[in-house]
């Protein structure tokens, strides 16, 4: 995908989904998630998304990476292949 194609795709995605602000409480929530769940390595990035979701009261995530998110209580994981028509 070229940068122009990626920008076009992002514009489309942003039209469907709201963008969440990076609020100050996210770091503290992320740290708590990492410690409570025992997250290590590259999965700390997924934990940051979960922290962002918690701070903004978002309970569902649409991702192809479903296995890595099932470990987080209160998060409903949705695979795009299951909803695409």
Largest sheet strand order: 1-2
Poorly predicted residue ranges = none
* Named CATH topology: Rossmann fold
Compute the average pLDDT.
93
Integer-rounded radius of gyration: 14 Å
Distance between the termini: 23 Å
CATH architectural name: 3-Layer(aba) Sandwich
Order of helices and strands: HHHEEH
Overall number of structural domains: 1
How would you summarize what this structure contains?
This protein is mainly α and 85 residues long.
Question: How would you characterize this protein structure?
Answer:
The chain is mainly alpha-helical and 85 residues long. α2 (25-37) packs across α3. A two-stranded parallel sheet has the order 1-2. It is built from four helices and two strands. It has helices spanning 3-16, 25-37, 44-55, 80-83, and strands spanning 60-62, 76-78. The protein starts with a helix and ends with a helix. The mean pLDDT is 93. It has a single domain, classed as Rossmann fold (3-Layer(aba) Sandwich), CATH 3.40.50.1010. The longest helix is centred in the N-terminal third of the chain and has 14 residues, at 3-16.
Kindly list the characteristics that best describe this protein.
mainly alpha; 2 strands; globular; 4 helices; Rossmann fold; 51% helix; two-stranded parallel sheet; 85 residues
Topology:
Elements (H helix, E strand, L loop, with lengths): L2 H14 L8 H13 L6 H12 L4 E3 L13 E3 L1 H4 L2
Parallel strand pairs: 1-2
Helix pairs in contact: 2-3
């Amino acid at each position: 995908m070229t940068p122009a194609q990626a920008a076009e795709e992002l514009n489309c995605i942003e039209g469907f989904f709201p963008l969440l602000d990076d609020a100050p409480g996210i770091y503290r929530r992320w740290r708590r998630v990492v410690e409570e769940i025992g997250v290590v390595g590259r999965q700390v990035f997924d934990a940051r998304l979960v922290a962002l979701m918690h701070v903004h009261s978002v309970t569902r995530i649409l991702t192809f990476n479903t296995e890595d998110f099932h470990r987080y209580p209160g998060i409903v994981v949705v695979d795009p292949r299951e909803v695409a028509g």
